[in-house]
Structures are given as structure tokens and as C-alpha cells.
Predict the 3D structure of the following.
Amino acid sequence: MTITITAFERSPDGGRGLARDTRVRWALEEVGQPYEVRLVSFKAMKEPAYLALQPFGQIPTFEEDGLVLFETGAIILHIAQRHRGLLPDAPEPRARAMAWMFAALNTIEPPIVEREAAQITERGKPWHAERLPMLDERIRTRLRQLSAWLGDRPWLDGAFSAGDLMMVSVLLRLKSSGLLDDVPNLAAYLARGEDRPAYRRAYAAQRAVNVP
Ligand SMILES: N[C@@H](CCC(=O)N[C@@H](CS)C(=O)NCC(=O)O)C(=O)O
């Protein structure tokens, strides 16, 4: 049965690969599963037919054989559990790879998203300039901690896993912020992720939609 995911008809990032369909495309490329993409407009994402798939009116969704999933954590965990290549077989390393997925989504992504939201919605407010350094420092704290853990390992815990896929995807949102300048091992970690053939294919596929 064909896998179908949804993505923006036109991504606000202009094809830089930061919309969250890219991480799902990447996971599918890593495990060698073909997929189709249904492009949706902002208007359609808020209509009842789409809200029946994704209650919050967001991309991406995942559909396969009657199963409908939303939330990239759930989607990528499902892909990684169903197909070989993104999770170790042994139970303990497998559980640890999942822990890194949660760390990416619950510990690292929230302050990054908060900073992005502040830059979009709070620009021009009198207190924005004072608040931004505080938001930056929250991210820097997490980056220092993650950098200390990573040290000189290539990946977070053994071989590349869904935990790395999620962590790299989240950190890529910081690429143009300058916040990675102080953590060269994390910058190199990102570069290793971006260099994976599966990531390159995923990036190219979303870019083809957004930069026709
Ligand atoms: N926690 C969700 C977040 C999904 C999300 O924020 N999607 C963004 C695009 S990357 C979106 O659809 N934004 C439009 C909106 O929220 O109206 C996930 O990981 O799937």
C-alpha cells in the first residue's frame, strides 16, 4: 500500500528544508520506502476534511493502508518500528534511540520554536530586544549540554538512528542563527546528517516543490 504524506503547497521557508515534512521524507528515504506527497494550502489545512486527519491543522500527516498518523514523533517512530534501518534491534539500545527522539522533540525543539515564534510575532514590541537574549541563552544552555554529551562521537548513541534523524532535523532550524558557532562538534554533527544520501534525497524532493 502506498504511503502518502502531506506537505505545504508552498513552504514559508522557501524550500530550506525546515518544514517538518522533510524529516518524514528523510525517515522514509533511510528505510527505502517510496511515498507520495499530497500538497495542501494553508486554507485547506484548516478545513474539516484536513482536521479529520490532523486535529491541529498542521503538516505533515502520514497515511498508509487505512492508518492515519500525525505528529512527526509518532510518524517517525512508526516508520522506524515497521522498517529496518532507524532503530537498533537490541531492546536497550533501541529504547535509548527512542529516548533521543523524545529529547529532540521535548527538550531541544521547544526553546528553538519559541525563539522562532518570538522573531515572527514579537518583532516591533518594545520588549523584544530584551527578551531575545534570554531566549538565546535557553537554547545555548541546551546546546552546551548536548555538545558535552556528543563529544567526539559521530552520532548520539552508537550507530545513526531515528534519534539522530530527529535531533539533526531540529538543530537544522538553528543553522542561520549563529547559535551553533560556539559548538563546533554540533555543527559537524549537523553536517554529517546533511551529508547522508537519504537526507539529500529528502531535501531535494521538498526543494523541487518549493523552488520549481
Ligand atoms: N508537533 C508537530 C508540529 C507540526 C507543525 O508545527 N507543522 C507546521 C509546519 S513545520 C505547520 O503546519 N504550521 C502551520 C500551522 O501550525 O498553522 C509535529 O511534529 O508534527
The first strand starts at residue 3 and ends at 8.
